[in-house]
Specification:
Length: 173
Amino acid sequence: MDIYMIILRLLHIFAGIFWVGTAFFFVLLLEPTITAAGPAGGTVMGRLTLTRFPLVMAVSSILTVAAGFLMYLIDSGGFQINWISTASGVTMTIGSLAGILAFLLGLAVQAPASARMAALQKEIQAAGRPPTPSQMAELHVLLDRISNASRWGAVLMVIAVIGMAIARELGKL
């Protein structure tokens, strides 16, 4: 193993720990709390979108996927079917695809919904009054969209983590 692979692996693992751990914190703890809080929870979620949270999640997911892709490219010998078709390669491929799908779900669904929620939150703050019924309705739609995508993303991340955790061991069978 060379220094390049060590750096990629460390980057992949630490960024992945943050990305997956934060996603699970959101799905299992924060989102149910926000939902239970009613209208106040929507305000908290809206405020969260105004922090660095969306940026930090995006950066951690990009680093995880990019480092993982480069390691996969190296481990597979440039996408050689002989490696990909082994038990280890198939498992790594399934895990990798699940991680990439979780990333794409965040990019296509969660990021735009978070950006719109942040813009809506700024509009509400600028107006200096409680949100209008139409703004509240839109906030609920956005929160539902983020929540559903987060749950599916968490499922995909479980598949990715399992694939990454067992792929090398399957190669020893």
